[in-house]
From TrEMBL:
GO MF annotation terms: heme binding; metal ion binding; nitrite reductase (cytochrome, ammonia-forming) activity
Domain of life according to the entry: Bacteria
Protein family according to the UniProt entry: Belongs to the cytochrome c-552 family.
EC number: 1.7.2.2
Pfam families the record matches: Cytochrom_C552
Keywords: Calcium, Heme, Iron, Metal-binding, Oxidoreductase, Signal
Location in or out of the cell: Cell envelope
Taxonomic source organism: Selenomonas ruminantium
Designated name of the protein: nitrite reductase (cytochrome; ammonia-forming)
């Protein structure tokens, strides 16, 4: 055998040994017990909650229960401390949401594990309906929707809410926001249970059942972290992203009388300006969808639920917190800057967004009072109609940014632009209202 033949034979032997090892490893049973499919009990709807998964998926369960923790993010924004009020941090909210219950209580959202406690104790609940439980866990789907479709949406809230043993504890509200909110309890595959999202995406031409795995990593969060409204006809949830991801497109949608919009007209009438108002609800999904991260295929899960290891076992963290608290796993896997540089960059985005958002909210509050002054001076509804339309739009843009959970980070350029549009429109309202008072219109 020549020297070349010996070398080739050696290479073949090494390759055979290597690939043989791979085949054996692939054929062997996995040694990570945390990812073996387990049968979850359906007795008394246990599969809808959290406790039933504790023994089968301990790493995921324990990390999910870390959502009980509070504390601010490293930039000083956000966090999940109980009773931390947006109203105290942004007093303009009292004027902007006057006549609506968000002017009474508007607290910083706590971790998902607190969904039941915070909803059941909310001052905003009475006299809400069953549709308020839609994004508080899969009880909406696994119990009500499978039994009778959207009928539950029009029930009194107390009749539709999941059963609980203690409304003041996470353990006592186990059937709120559990594993089945994102996973099929029988297969543990990612799923979208929120049927309003499924229906609205279908109206947009997107079939959820054909989504890729990476798309599902955005959809499982986006099914609830979005802007929505309740159909006046039957209370079902719908989403204005049917018309587009931009707030301008969604505002235009709310101004139409389309079949998808139904009879919905407004969330409330502002008592000072008599303007029919819209309340934006955390449009995180819409803001992220057109972001640089989304364009790169980076989903909510990649940042907020990174892969972790414990005792040699790899698992997906279910502690859905600020990525800056898990920065090595969430950010530094892609970014080559230092930890300190990344935190400083995010803080700059947060600082700038919050400052401009506050200016927008304060200017909108002044606009409500300017319209009230015009009314007191004798301006007619006919004269004020175009002014109120601008005010409705201005507050919509401010609220679209203020209600979003990323404080601008999910899409900094968009959020700054939208706040700017809110400021511009609010100044136009003040100018028009003052002109009416002076009799020049």
């Amino acid at each position: 055998m020549s020297k070349l033949q010996k070398i080739l034979a050696g290479i073949v032997a090494v390759c055979a040994l290597f690939f043989g090892f791979v085949v054996v490893r692939l054929g062997a049973a996995p040694n990570d017990d945390s990812v073996k499919l387990a049968k979850i009990s359906h007795e008394n709807y246990a599969h809808v909650g959290k406790e039933a998964y504790k023994e089968a998926y301990p790493l995921e369960y324990n990390s999910y229960m870390k959502n009980n923790q509070g504390g601010e993010s490293p930039t000083g924004y956000g966090g999940s401390d109980p009773g931390k009020s947006y109203i105290e941090m942004q007093p303009e909210i009292k004027e902007n949401f006057k006549g609506y219950k968000f002017s009474v209580q508007y607290d910083v959202a706590r971790g998902h594990t607190w969904a039941g406690v915070d909803q059941l104790n909310s001052q905003r609940i009475p006299p809400q309906k069953g549709n308020c439980i839609v994004c508080k866990g899969s009880w909406m789907y696994d119990k009500w929707y499978k039994e009778s479709g959207w009928d539950f949406a029009s029930l009194p809230f107390a009749e539709a809410t999941p059963p609980y043993t203690n409304k003041d504890t996470v353990e006592g509200t186990d059937l709120y926001m559990g594993c089945s909110s994102c996973h099929d309890p029988d297969t543990m595959q990612l799923r979208v249970y929120q049927q309003g999202f499924v229906e609205s995406m279908a109206l947009k031409g997107i079939d959820i059942s054909k989504a890729s795995h990476n798309e599902m990593r955005g959809y499982v969060c986006g099914q609830c972290h979005n802007e929505y409204y309740f159909m006046a006809e039957d209370g079902r949830v719908r989403h204005p992203f049917i018309a587009g991801w931009e707030p301008e497109e969604q505002f235009k949608f709310y101004q139409t009388q389309s079949e998808q919009l139904g009879a919905f007209k407004q969330d409330w009438l502002h008592p000072d300006s008599k303007t029919p108002m819209l309340k934006a609800q955390h449009p995180d999904f819409e803001i992220w969808t057109t972001s640089v991260h989304a364009d790169a295929g980076v989903t909510c899960v990649d940042c907020h639920m990174p892969y972790m290891r414990e005792n040699g076992q790899k698992y997906t963290s279910h502690w859905m917190t600020s990525p800056l608290k898990t920065i090595e796993a969430s950010c530094l896997k892609c970014h080559d800057e230092s930890k300190e540089t990344l935190i400083a960059r995010v803080k700059t985005i947060h600082d700038n967004n919050f400052k401009l958002q506050r200016v927008a909210g304060q200017t909108v509050a002044k606009a409500h009072l300017a319209v009230k002054a015009a009314m007191d001076a004798g301006a007619t509804d006919e004269q004020l109609a175009p002014v109120r339309l601008k005010l409705r739009e201005a507050q919509w843009y401010w609220d679209w940014v203020a209600a979003e959970n990323g404080n601008g980070f999910h899409n900094p350029d968009k959020c700054m632009r939208i706040s700017g549009e809110a400021i511009d429109l609010a100044h136009q309202v003040i100018q028009d209202a003052n002109a009416l008072v002076k009799g020049s219109l």
